[in-house]
Amino acid sequence: MAKLIIIGAGASGLSAASRLVEKGFDPAKITILEAENRIGGRILTVPHGSSLIELGAQWVHGHEGNVVHPLAAAAGEIRTDIHTLESTGYADDVEMAYRDGRKITPVQLNEFKKILQSIYDDSKKELAQWDKSLGEYFESKFGEHLNRGSFTTMNRSTALDLLDWAHRSQNIEDGSDNWNDTSGVGSLEYHECEGDYTTVWKRGYSVLFDILMKNVPKTSNGLKLSLSDRIQLNSPVNLIRWNSAPSSGVQVVCSDKTYYADMVLITCSLGVLKDRADKLFTPLLPEKKRRAIEALGFGTVNKIFLEFRKPWWTSEWGGVNFITDPSKATGEWEDRVLGFSTVRGQPNLLISWVTGSAARQFETRSEDEVLMKCSTMLRTAVGTDFAYEEPTRVIRSLWQSNPHFCGSYSFRSKKSIELDVCPSDLAEPVIDSNGSARLFFAGEATHDHRYSTVHAAVETGWREADRIVEHVKETNFTAKL
């Protein structure tokens, strides 16, 4: 029987495992190696008080064509979260303020949003012929509006400061350090799933794994198979020997054990592959695969939660987003913090986001520094509107400095267009010198059109499971299918 090792027990790895067993692959021949002390990957649901918070993936992005949505809906887990709008700064109850307390008026904000939306609308048609970055497109179009006097409620510098906030917001959506790193035409390759983008899981995104594990069928004698028995936690992989002719198979070396298999499905993040693919695989991966790993974009997005003894804000207040005055920028991570908004189900918490180089810098700072600087920014931006109280605690994600992730999610970089690379190049199986497929790749970064999402991770896990099943059928493997 064919033996398979799956590297990674996140959404992609566990989706693949459950699909394989569903299609008749013997679960006893599957080993899942997980570097962390938990399953879930970049889904990290954490209990907090009487509810929970998401330190990783948060939303089900649309429902039409989203393979995760029917799983959540069938389990009664669907809930609309209006706070999605608040955290993006586009809800009516979110203020915009400079970090020195100066406020953007509702009239100014409305004018800015209308002009920005018109640029977004035009981009859907114009980016296909744009050979520069996404940022250069927005800056060019915004400049045209400035030059022809489209802004009547604010001066040029204020409008540019608001554009800088939109830049930070776009970076959070894309995962890039800078929107000038994101390809303009490449960004059109991302296909949105139609439907509500404010959908969350009632009991947290981690419920997805309960569903995937429960979908494993019973054996012929009625016994329930268990994928959890096939998972080895705390098992980071140090080396993958994949072309050791004349012997066949793959060796996967961990610190305490070496595993042997006919095939390996790799579902670790693109960030991990960027960090150490040249050391992880022997021999080196094919040049085309290495070029894909190098050229596709992968960035860091972190969340910051501030906890307060009690809410000092009213139920009508959605939050405040920070505008940075370039003349007062410090060059530190706090310049790029988006702002703070309320958190559904957590009345004493406010959430913010930070991305790119600022997010990486932020991870090196102490919790005391983060707490103090975030509180100072928030207190000043709120001004005298509320009787502000100091936060008691900060909770944050640290995706870049964790060597098992090395960041958050992928995007279509300018470099990927220049080198003619796409996610399907990353997804392509690697064939050994005997002509047999040995290495398979899944994960959000391997999806041509839905990269950066959980549904891409699940969908590509299923894709590779189907590919492995077909490969086994077409070869001399005697897997029980």
Automatic annotation (TrEMBL):
Highest rank taxon of the organism: Eukaryota
GO cellular component terms given for this protein: cytoplasm
Q: Which Pfam families match?
A: Amino_oxidase (PF01593)
- Tell me where the transmembrane regions lie: none
What is a GO molecular function of this protein?
polyamine oxidase activity
Kindly give the InterPro entries that the UniProt entry links to this protein.
Amino_oxidase (IPR002937), FAD/NAD-bd_sf (IPR036188), Flavin_monoamine_oxidase (IPR050281)
Annotated Amine oxidase domain residues: 12-468
Q: What PANTHER family does the entry give?
A: AMINE OXIDASE DOMAIN-CONTAINING PROTEIN-RELATED, FLAVIN MONOAMINE OXIDASE
Name of the featured protein: Amine oxidase domain-containing protein
Q: Give the species.
A: Daphnia pulex
